[in-house]
Every structure is written in structure tokens, then in C-alpha cells.
């Protein structure tokens, strides 16, 4: 299952807050991990991304919120990759590096750039199963390419033509305003933008060749770390985080969602020196500690959220994990 860096979700939620939405309400509506706004966990699966988009659209009432997130795209939201782009010698190289290292931030979709004699096409390649909520991610990426390029080049960068692969939305004005004077099409085979080569070959303002090499080396290390973390243990933990809402996740359901048999999943986890019950207990423990630190819900509510039938069972489990009762841990955290 595809996943993405939680920094991407945090900045989207922050943009929604700028538009008057309640961040806490978005997190609750989306069933997001309680530590998401603090970067915990570092990655979430695509199902969380979809629910967050739905919650953001509902909270803001803006169907163009994806475009808005792209227009206000902060380079720091993609960490080291953002610094590589900011120090690339040209806008084209910045886009090429984003294409090459996209998976360090997300593997739901990626950018591709094709250079022709006079023009270049930047288009989106879909890596995960399409869901209508991903339309907002497409909008974000398409708006960010134009907005970031214009903000970091000597002359404003405008596409010659723009196409979106999904069907025409009810209100196209935000699209025509953003990409004007380019023609904006909907229902195309892929989502794409066409630029003149001269526009993309402009130097990036303030770029440093020394910093470019330094940050690219860091991104390459992150890619290696990312690939090392793409384990079934990680995927199972993400599914458990998503499913813990008053009931303990079932291994059969999780295996089905990961498109493997229960036996195969158990074997894969064993190869990683883990098991479903171990991951479930560790996830419950981590969530319980976070809830107690936040001190926003009582032990009864925590027990329910973690799928325990009785608060006494939760209390015994917590003491077994930490050597402390939930109340003692809460008091210690507050000290």
C-alpha cells in the first residue's frame, strides 16, 4: 500500500487552518493518528491521506483547496528534497530532482518531465489505485509546479497548455485564473503541463552549487532509509493505527487490506522478527502513552479507542508495558 510523509499532511491541514478550519476537528474527522501534527508517525498510508483530504474539503468548504495548497506550497514541507530544489542550477533540474526523489516523500503519484526540441511536458504518473480524493493531490502538484517555478525564477513561468485527467469540476474559474493564459482541459489521458524550454532552463534564484550537492547526498541517504522501512511490519502498524476506533483490528481484515493471505502475512512478519500481536500491542502502547501525555481524554475513553472492552484490562496492559499505571504515567508526564 502506498504511503506518504506526514509533513505533507501537516502543511495541508495548516493551510486549511489559515482558511478558518479547526485543525483538531479535521484530525478527529479523518481518524488521523493523534501525534500526526507532531510528525508521529513519520509516514501514513494512502487511506489516511484520502480521509484527511475529505475532512479538509468539508471543513473549508473549498473545492479548490488542492490548488490553494499548491499555490502556498512551502519548500520546507518536503524537507531535504525541498532544499535540493531550492539550490538546483535551473528550474528544470529542480523538477528533475523532484521526479527522481519523489518516493522519499510519497509514493501515491510522481512527476515525470519529457524534453522536446522546443517545449517540455511535465506530467503526473499515478502509482497507486485512483481515488476521487486524490484529485486534490493532483491539483496541489500542478499548482505547485507553476507557483514554485515562478517564485524561484527570474521571469514568471507560465504553461502553454494544461490538462487534468479527471472530469471537469463544477467551478473551473480557479483553474483558468491560476494557469492563464494557457488553455485548461479536463478529461485528458494524464494530468500534464507544457512549458517552453527557455522558461524551464532559467536559473534558480539564490541557488548554491555547494549546497545542492550537500543536500542531494542527504536525500539519497533518505531514499535508502525509506526503502529499508518499506516492511510488512510498517504496513500492518499503519493499518492498525487506522482501524483502532473502539475495536481491536482483526488480522484477517488487515491481511485482506494488504492483499495477502493471513498465513502469508504471518510468515512475512516472522521473517521481520515480528508478529501481528506484537505490533498490535506496541501500537496500543504508543497511542496510550500519547493520549495520556496530551491529557485530553480519560482512561475510559482511551480504553475504548484502543479496542479494550473494559478500562481495567487496559490498565493491566499498560502497567505490563511500562511498569506504571495510566494515572501514574499521566502524572509523571505532567510534572
Question: What does it look like?
Answer:
With 335 residues, this protein is of the alpha+beta class. The chain folds into two domains: 64-225, no CATH class; 232-334, Homeodomain-like (Arc Repressor Mutant, subunit A, Orthogonal Bundle), CATH 1.10.10. It has helices at 6-18, 23-30, 46-60, 65-71, 79-86, 91-101, 135-152, 173-179, 197-200, 209-228, 232-243, 251-257, 262-271, 276-294, 299-305, 311-322, 326-334; strands spanning 3-5, 43-45, 109-115, 119-126, 161-164, 183-186, 192-196. Helix 8 (173-179) links the parallel strand 5 and strand 6 (183-186). Helix 1 packs parallel to helix 3, helix 4 packs parallel to helix 7 and helix 11 (232-243) crosses helix 14 (276-294). The chain starts with a strand and ends with a helix.
Amino acid at each position: 500500500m502506498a504511503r506518504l510523509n506526514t509533513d505533507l499532511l501537516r502543511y495541508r491541514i495548516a493551510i486549511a487552518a489559515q482558511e478558518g478550519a479547526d485543525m483538531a476537528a479535521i484530525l478527529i474527522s479523518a481518524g488521523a493518528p493523534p501525534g500526526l501534527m507532531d510528525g508521529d508517525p513519520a509516514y501514513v498510508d494512502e487511506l489516511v491521506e484520502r480521509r484527511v483530504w475529505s475532512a479538509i474539503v468539508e471543513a473549508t468548504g473549498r473545492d479548490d483547496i488542492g490548488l490553494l495548497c499548491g499555490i502556498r506550497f512551502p519548500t520546507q514541507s518536503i524537507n531535504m528534497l525541498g532544499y535540493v530544489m531550492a539550490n538546483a542550477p535551473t528550474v528544470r533540474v529542480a523538477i528533475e530532482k523532484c521526479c527522481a526523489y519523489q518516493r522519499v516523500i510519497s509514493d501515491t503519484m510522481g512527476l515525470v518531465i519529457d524534453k522536446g526540441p522546443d517545449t517540455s511536458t511535465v506530467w503526473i504518473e499515478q502509482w497507486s489505485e485512483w481515488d476521487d480524493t486524490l484529485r486534490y493531490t493532483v491539483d496541489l502538484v500542478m499548482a505547485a509546479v507553476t507557483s514554485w517555478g515562478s517564485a524561484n525564477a527570474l521571469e514568471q513561468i507560465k504553461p502553454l497548455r494544461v490538462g487534468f485527467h479527471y472530469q471537469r469540476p463544477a467551478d473551473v474559474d480557479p483553474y483558468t485564473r491560476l494557469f492563464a493564459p494557457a488553455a485548461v482541459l479536463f478529461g485528458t489521458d494524464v494530468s500534464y503541463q507544457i512549458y517552453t524550454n527557455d522558461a524551464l532552463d532559467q536559473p534558480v534564484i539564490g541557488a548554491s552549487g555547494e549546497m545542492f550537492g550537500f543536500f542531494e547526498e542527504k536525500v539519497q541517504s533518505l531514499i535508502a532509509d525509506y526503502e529499508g522501512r518499506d516492511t510488512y511490519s510498517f504496513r500492518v502498524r499503519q493499518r492498525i493505527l487506522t482501524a483502532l476506533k473502539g475495536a481491536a483490528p482483526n488480522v484477517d481484515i488487515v491481511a485482506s487490506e494488504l492483499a495477502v493471505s493471513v498465513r502469508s502475512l504471518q510468515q512475512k512478519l516472522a521473517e521481520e522478527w515480528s508478529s501481528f500481536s506484537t505490533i498490535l500491542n506496541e501500537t496500543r502502547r504508543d497511542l496510550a502513552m500519547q493520549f495520556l501525555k496530551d491529557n485530553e481524554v480519560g482512561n475510559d475513553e482511551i480504553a475504548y479507542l484502543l479496542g479494550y472492552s473494559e478500562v481495567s484490562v487496559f490498565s493491566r496492559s499498560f502497567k505490563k508495558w511500562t511498569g506504571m499505571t495510566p494515572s501514574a504515567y499521566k502524572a509523571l508526564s505532567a510534572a
